[in-house]
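Here is one chain, start to finish.
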Amino acid sequence: MAVLNIKNLPDPLYEKLKARAKRQRRSVAQEVTQILADALDEEERPSLLELRGLGKELWEGIDPAEYIENERRSWE
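Its structure:
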């Protein structure tokens, strides 16, 4: 099993980590492992570039500038 050393971890952050580990009834090392596992196991979210064109069928035939101007007028 690998070993991870963290240098220059700010004391306030370590104290929060220690408190969180205590609430979860884990050691600090177990809590760090869980936090990293949760963060890295999340599904990758698409980038903004991958979202290009999403929903474009909803805007077909609509002039964006005109739509925004109409929306702004409706707020007055």
